[in-house]
C-alpha cells in the first residue's frame, strides 16, 4: 500500500539529503500503516532500519511536521517483501530476453533464468553514484552514450582494467539506465562464469535452444569478466554465434575483462577480431583525487562527513582497488559506529595503519619479540608456562597481534606461542579485541607495538 503522505515526505527528503543517501536509505521504503499516534514504515533490511532509526528519524519527524503531522511516532519495520532489486513500479530491473521476442514477464520456461539475471544486476550501480576521474572518464562517456542509444555506437564496447576499479559498476549502470529509459528493453546481464555454467547445463539437459534463444533475443547483452571464457572452446563457439546474431540485429553488446582481448589466453582468433570491431577502452587505476571523491561519496551514503585528513589517509592506504578502499572505509565506519566515536585520523591510523604499509617480511617471532619488549619481559617468558598476570596479558596481546597483523589461524597462533590448545588463542584474541575498546592503556600499547614493528 502506498500512502501519499509518505510519498510527500520522501519527496522532501530527497531534496534535503544527497542523492546517494536517498537512494540508499529511503528509496525502497513503504508506508505500511498509520493511525494518529503511530506510523509504520516498511524497510528492506536491518541495516536500513538502524540507519533510519539512528540517523534519520528526526529528519522524518521534521518533514512530517512540515506536512501537518505532529506528535506521531515512526516505527521502521523490516519487510522482506520490499526488494531493493526492484524499481518503484515493481518492474523487474532486468527484463528477461525471451525467444518469442514478447515483452510479457517471465513464463515458466524462463523462470530460472529470470531469477538468476535479477540476482546478477544491482540497482545500486548507476551513473549517478559513479565518480568520474581521468582514469575512467572515457569508459564513462562511452557507457553513457550507449545507454542513450544502445546498439548504434561502439558495438561491441569492450572495457578492460584491473580488479575492483569499477568495471562491473559501470556496465551495470548501462543496464539500469537502459531499463529506466525503456522499461520493456530486454537487458541481459551475465557473468561469464554463469554463462559458461548455463551453457554446460543447457547441453546436459538438452535445453540448448532455450539457452541460445534467451541470449540471442536480448536488446542489450552485458557479459562481465570475459577472461573466464579462456580455454572453454565450446562456450567460445556458442558465444561467437550469440555475438553474431546480436551484432547483425544491431543489438548492443558490452563486454568487460581484466585484460585486453589479445592477452586472453586461448581466445579464439575470430572472437578476438570481433571484440575489436567496436570500441575498446582501457580503464586505469583511479587517481588520488578520484579515490578521495569516492570515499567522500561512500561516507555520505552513511550520512557521515569524514575529515579531510581521514579521506586522504584512506586514499593513500589503498591505491588501486576501489572494493578494498570501500572495505577499509566500512571497517572504520563500523568500528566507530559500534563505539559511538567520530571517525578521526588517530582511529583510522590505529585501526588500518598497518594494513598496507606493512612490509611483507614481518614474522611471528618479530611480533612476539616486540610485544615482550614493550612489556619489559623476556620472550622466553611469553613462550613459557608461567601464568602470572604480568606475563599472561603480554602473551594474550602477542596472540592478538599474530591474528590482526598476520591473520594466522588459531591453531597456528597456539603453535607459535608453544601451546597445544588453540581455544586459548581464540579466547585471548577475543578478550584483547574487546578490552582494547574500553581500556585506553591497552589500546595505546597495541598501537605502540604496531608502530615499532613497522617503523
Ligand atoms: P570491477 O568489476 O572492476 O572489479 P566493481 O565495479 O565491482 O569493480 O567495483 C568495486 C566497487 O568499487 C563497487 O562497489 C563499486 O561501486 C565501487 N567503485 C568502483 N569505481 C567506482 C567509482 N568510480 N565511483 C564509485 N564507486 C566505484
Ligand atoms: Mg567486476
Write up this protein.
- The radius of gyration is 27 Å and the shape is globular.
- By secondary structure, the chain is of the alpha/beta class.
- The longest helix is centred in the first third of the chain and has 21 residues.
- The chain has a five-stranded parallel beta sheet with strand order 5-6-7-4-8, sandwiched between helices. Strands 1-2-3 form a three-stranded mixed beta sheet, covered by helices on one side.
- It has 21 helices and eight strands.
Top keywords for this entry?
single chain, 455 residues, alpha/beta, 5-stranded parallel beta sheet, 3-stranded mixed beta sheet, 21 helices, 8 strands, 55% helix, globular, binds adenosine-5'-diphosphate, binds magnesium ion
Low-pLDDT parts are: 84-119
What shape does the CA trace take?
Answer: globular
| Tally of DSSP helical segments | 21
Overall pLDDT metric? 84
Query: Which value, in Å, is the CA radius of gyration?
Result: 27 Å
| Main β-sheet description | 5 strands, parallel
The string of secondary-structure elements, in order, is: HHEEHEHHEHEHHEHEHEHHHHHHHHHHH
Strand content: 5-15%
Strand tally, please?
A: 8
What is the topology, as strand order, of the major beta sheet?
5-6-7-4-8
